[in-house]
Design goal:
There is one protein chain. By secondary structure, this protein is an alpha/beta fold. The chain has helices at about 15-20, 55-70, 100-110, 140-160, 170-180, 205-210, 235-250, 260-270, 280-295, 300-315, 325-330; strands at about 30-35, 45, 50-55, 75-80, 115-120, 130-135, 140, 160-165, 190-195, 250-255, 275-280, 315-320.
């Protein structure tokens, strides 16, 4: 064949392939999500094989393990006792609550680790929503934002490095930025859940935190979160959300879920110069784990290929429950 261009020339050897490789993943790209609870025993999460609810002491050991593997950021999610849940989720800004105590302990034991937090009411709400639900069954925007600002300040006071509003209330990034600045926390960053979709991929996460919407009394409770999380049908709307978050002071933009929304990561990458994070969510994690346990896929290969897809789409950071395994595999 008389061919001028033969792309296979640059695929001939491992050395050549590595020379022209366009994207790579490293452990410092990962943000490792960790679940914590008040119990005295580590609790495996049934829907997420390999993931656990950590105790305060075991959390420290796990974070140190992550650091030793090259991971430089973790994000904390609390499983809150039922007795502490209220309609307003006031436990979220308790200075002696589970998350502030965990932040303080981690900063004492491993001050170099970057700590990201979650800002939303669903783990603390008796209704299971990210915001306050009115007696008419409406998730209230502005009233919720007031509570989120208090939550963010308490987390910053405890030593959080990055505040992660995951609630999808309108205007919350600007309000949190102003609240943090007013309290002297200008150096605390915001990594906003910019395009967070009302997705079916969150099921295992909600089992881990027992945070799904639920009706425990006569008040009507929205059965899902579609009045504030984004419609999976929409892509252009994500650009609007990204623009607003950037204007309101977000330092990092996030797309959630990640794998089913690679096109959204790519679109936002074309519009913004800010760092972009992709959340490789619980449902995506659990599908790979389940297939691997059945012997249907090679876990290492599929995980690393999946994580690479986020970088190729334009993400700079990846929140993933695979973080420690992937970090070890990258060292092989």
């Amino acid at each position: 064949m008389d061919l001028t261009y033969r792309p296979r020339r640059l695929r001939k050897t491992p050395a050549l392939r590595s020379m022209v490789r366009e994207n790579i993943i490293t452990p410092s790209d990962f943000i490792y999500p960790l679940f914590i609870h008040e119990g005295e025993e580590v609790e495996p999460i049934g829907a997420m094989p390999g993931a656990n609810r950590w105790t305060m002491n075991s959390l420290v050991d796990e974070v140190k393990r992550a650091w030793s593997l090259g991971i430089r950021c973790i994000v904390l999610f609390p499983k809150v006792a039922e007795s502490l849940k209220t309609e307003g989720g006031e436990e979220c800004f308790n200075k002696n609550g589970l998350i502030p105590r965990a932040i303080r302990k981690l900063k004492e034991e491993l001050p170099e680790m970057t700590i990201m937090t979650d800002v939303a009411l669903d783990p603390y709400s008796i209704d299971g929503h990210d915001g306050i639900v009115s007696q008419e069954g409406v998730v209230l925007n502005d009233e919720t934002v007031e509570h989120l600002c208090k939550q963010a300040i308490v987390q910053a006071q405890a030593g959080a490095d990055l505040i992660g509003p995951s609630d999808m209330m309108d205007g919350r990034v600007g309000a949190i930025r102003e609240a943090l600045d007013d309290e002297g926390f200008e150096s605390v960053g915001i990594i906003s859940y910019t395009a967070k979709y009302s997705s079916a991929y969150y099921g295992p996460f909600r089992e881990a935190l027992d945070s799904a919407p639920r009706a425990l009394n006569s008040k009507p409770i929205p059965k899902d979160k579609s009045t504030y999380q984004m419609d999976p049908s929409n892509a252009r709307e994500a650009i609007t959300e990204a623009y607003l978050d950037e204007q309101e002071g977000s330092d990092i933009l996030m797309v959630k879920p990640g794998l089913a929304y690679l096109d959204i990561i790519y679109r936002i990458r074309q519009e913004s110069e800010l760092p972009i994070a992709a959340y490789n969510v619980s449902g995506e994690y659990s599908m790979i784990k389940a297939a691997a346990l059945k012997g249907w896929v090679d876990e290492k290969s599929v995980v690393l290929e999946t994580l690479l897809s986020f970088k190729r789409a334009g993400a700079d950071l990846i929140l993933t429950y695979h973080a420690c395994d992937a970090a070890k595999w990258l060292q092989d």
